[in-house]
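User: I've been trying to design a sequence by hand for this structure and keep getting stuck. Would you show me what you'd pick, starting by listing the structure so we're on the same page?

Assistant: Good idea, let's start from the same input. This is the structure you sent:
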């Protein structure tokens, strides 16, 4: 049984859009990744106690010492079923800033009906990039900055689990395997003391451009689809994606990310050895991406949404982590899987 909850002030479920403002209503109008529960043929607005196939909508009212007023909490509790299933939404690109109502409209334009929604993940205010893992339809839309951060994963049958992502991401070319220290669909940054940053892969899920602000080497890649299913066409946990090099560019800043392709990018201030390895690539060369996890459950997850720390375990505070100033806040929403 899984429960999704969201603390809101109004008594209509449809007002969960964070753009409505007010403490506890969400992360604000720029919070852009949400956890929805779309169900085929289900209405979008429900009051407490309204029947849902395989799910129920509940309501709690409690006093908040923080805000010195009454708070209303609505929650959807469901058993995995074919009618009400979890999904992750973020707009057309992972750096988009989209409200919950905007994400709901997108899902409903695809023939789905949204019965619940809540904000998820932290994001970088200046770029809109998520800090954690993002997976939809089994495709890795973005990795987390660190492989020990937490995320929630959903299987095809709607069951959920919460775990550290444990991801390992690398690319192989020229007879060598190289760690993708900058991850997938993260804003490129210099390698730091924790070996985070550096070589970064940007797919067309990231944005229309690379958003790079300094010179660097950019390699335009085209995914290989041989029709046999040997390789995944997009980054997938537990599988490899093979690319063919189209161009190697000395870029002075941001460049477009061609639709259906990817850009392997490295800042010009990185080590000469790393830069030389990338510059040695020629059109027609093969680059193979490998995404794996020490926790095999992630290779089965069709939807996933990360964050940084797990805050509560079995009702007890599990972390004293506080976000740095450049991060946008999450919503008051929370999820418990049991």
């Amino acid at each position: 049984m899984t429960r999704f909850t969201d603390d809101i002030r109004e008594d209509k479920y449809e007002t969960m859009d964070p753009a409505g403002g007010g403490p506890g209503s969400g992360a604000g109008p720029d919070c852009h990744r949400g956890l929805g529960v779309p169900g085929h043929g289900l209405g979008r607005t429900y009051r407490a106690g309204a029947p849902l196939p395989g799910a129920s909508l509940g309501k709690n009212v409690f006093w908040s010492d923080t805000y010195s007023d009454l708070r209303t909490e609505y929650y959807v509790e469901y058993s995995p079923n074919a009618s009400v299933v979890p999904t992750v939404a973020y707009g057309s690109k992972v750096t988009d800033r989209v409200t919950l109502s905007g994400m709901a409209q997108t899902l409903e334009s695809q023939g789905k009906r949204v019965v619940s929604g809540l904000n998820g993940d932290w994001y970088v205010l200046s770029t809109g990039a998520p800090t954690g893992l993002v997976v939809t339809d089994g495709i890795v839309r973005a990795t987390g900055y660190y492989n020990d951060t937490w995320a929630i994963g959903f299987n095809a049958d709607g069951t959920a689990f919460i775990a550290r992502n444990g991801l390992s991401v690398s690319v192989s070319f020229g007879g060598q395997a190289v760690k993708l220290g900058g991850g997938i669909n993260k804003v490129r940054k210099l390698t730091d003391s924790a070996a985070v940053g550096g070589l970064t892969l940007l797919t067309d899920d990231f944005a229309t451009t690379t958003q790079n602000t300094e010179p660097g080497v950019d390699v335009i890649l085209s995914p290989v689809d041989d029709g046999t299913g040997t390789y995944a066409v997009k980054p997938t946990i537990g599988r490899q994606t093979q690319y063919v090099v189209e161009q190697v560019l000395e870029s002075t800043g941001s460049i477009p990310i061609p639709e259906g392709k990817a850009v392997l990018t490295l800042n010009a201030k990185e080590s000469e050895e790393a830069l030389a390895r990338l510059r040695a690539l020629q059109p027609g060369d093969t680059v193979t991406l490998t995404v794996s996890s020490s926790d095999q459950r992630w290779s089965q997850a069709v939807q996933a949404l990360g964050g940084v720390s797990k805050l509560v375990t079995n009702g007890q505070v599990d972390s004293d982590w506080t976000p740095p100033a450049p991060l946008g806040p999450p919503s008051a929403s929370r999820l418990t899987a049991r």
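That's my pick for every position. To get oriented when you compare it with your attempt: Helices lie at 100-109, 272-279. The longest strand covers residues 239-251.
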